[in-house]
Amino acid sequence: YTGWEVQPTGRLSWSITPKQTAWVVVSRAGSTPSRGEDDIQINAAAVPGAFISLYGSRAVRAKELVSFELGYRVQPTDRINLDFASFFNLYDRQRSIEPDRGPLPSFTNNNLIEGNTYGFELASTFQLTDWLRLRANYSFLKMDLHLSPGGAPNPFQLDHSEGDSPQHQVGIRSLMDLPHNLEFDTGVRYVDSLPNRNVPSYIVGDARLGWRPNSNWEISIVGQNLFESQHRGFAPSYIQTQVTQVEASVYGKVTFP
After folding, report:
1. How far apart are alpha carbons 212 and 215 in whole angstroms?
2. Number of CB atoms found within 10 A of residue 113's CB
3. In terms of Cα–Cα distance, which of 70, 119, 89, 111 is closest to 28?
4. Mean pLDDT over all residues of the chain?
5. Nearest CA-CA partner of 183 in 122, 255, 123, 124
C-alpha cells in the first residue's frame, strides 16, 4: 500500500570487563496499513435508525517508529546475572479517526497521532543451588500520545492510548532439576490493568512437570494461567468484537526427534 519502507538498525556493544557489557541500539520501523485501514467501511448504529460510518483511506501512510535503547548486563558472582535495558521510542503518523464534512456523521482513517513512549526492563537470574534457579523480571512503560496539529478531537479518537498497554508487569519463576531426570518449574506473573479497555489487573501462575527418560525424549504436563478459571486479556475499541477471555489450561506434551 505504501511502496518501499526502510527499517535499519544500528547496534554498538562494549565489553567493559569479562563480566560487564553495555550496549546502545537505534532502530527505525514502519507499519504499513492493513486492508481495513485502506478500504474498510463500518456502519455502526448510534441510535435506532441512525448510523455512524467509518471509512478507510487510500491516503493513509505507513506508521513510523524510531527507537533508542540503552542496556547494561553484569555478572557480580558466578551465580547471579543482572540485566537492565531502558528505551525511548518516537512515534509518528499513527492511526487517527477524523470527522468528514458531509451531511451525515462519518469518519475516515488518517495519520494524525504522534508522541513517545519510554520505560525500562529489569531481568535477573539467581543460581541458588546446583538444582534450583530463580528468574525475576520487571518492566515499566509510560506512553504519551496525542493528536498532531490539524487533528480533530472526537468521541472515537484514539488519542488517549496510554491505557491500552499495561504500565507495570512483574514475574518470578523457579526452575528445579529433581532426581530421576525430573524437572519442576513454577512461575507467577502480575500484569497491570488497562483502564481504556476496562480490563483489571491480574495475577496468574504457571507450572510445568517434565521428565526426560533419555537425552532425546521429553514428557511434560503444563498448567497455564492458573489461580482462576479465566480473566480478561483485552477488549475492543471502536470495532465491537468479543472481549478476549484467557482461560486456565492444562495440557500434556511429548517431544522427540
Report:
1. 7
2. 22
3. 89
4. 90
5. 255
Three-state secondary-structure class, residue 62: coil
Question: Does pLDDT of 1 surpass 60?
Answer: yes
- What pTM, to 2 d.p., does this model score? 0.85
Report d(CA 245, CA 257) in Å as an integer.
35
The Cα 168–Cα 5 span in angstroms is: 32
Backbone angles phi, psi at 103, to 5 degrees: -75, -25
Q: What is the largest CA-CA distance in the chain?
A: 75
Mean pLDDT to the nearest integer, 173-194: 96
Residue holding cell 468479543? Answer: 242
Q: pLDDT by residue (tens digit) across 213-226?
A: 998 999 999 999 99
- How would DSSP label each residue in 152-214? ---TT----GGGGS-SEEEEEEEEEEETTTEEEEEEEEEE--BGGGTB--EEEEEEEEEE-SS
Residue whose cell numbers read 481495513: 36
Which amino acid does the sequence have at 23? W
| Upper half-sphere CA count for residue 199 (Cβ side, 13 Å) | 25
Amino acid, single-letter form, for residue 166: P
